[in-house]
Description:
With 166 residues, the chain is of the alpha+beta class.
Amino acid sequence: MTRRLSVTIALAGFTATLGWAEPVGFDHYQVIIDRAPFGGLPGAAGGGAPQPNFAEGFVFVGVVADAQGRLLAVIQPKSAPRAEYKAEGETIGDVTVVKIEVAGEASKLILQQGLVKATLSYPPRSSVANPPPVAASAQAQPAPAGQATASVTVPPRRRIPFRRGD
Length: 166
């Protein structure tokens, strides 16, 4: 028993001296932090690199209406060979179509992935040597009596040559 008691007293005395010693700061770890062994900037959370936006993988092509009159957004995923036609509330993988705003050239599409929302608009048009004239809208309004109607020029249809295989 005396031996066990003496070992217990020695351990208690040793731990007491450690507690009275000056506290160890993190200054001696500064060398490791300066070297940044795990990459990124020191003190930056998450590695410091911005995460890519999920909406960069999609192109907003246009808006069409289906047979029931619902608006469908025409969305081209950059990783897929064909476009998707989606209404509000429908999904493409884990991306949901939240809202379709129709305003001509300023139409917008709001997508959501998890808690992140993104807004897509039409891509900028490339310059065309001879832009086609602007056609009338699909729903033409009749002119009031006594007023002349404006004529709209429609570009001629372009025929594509077709040759059957021999």
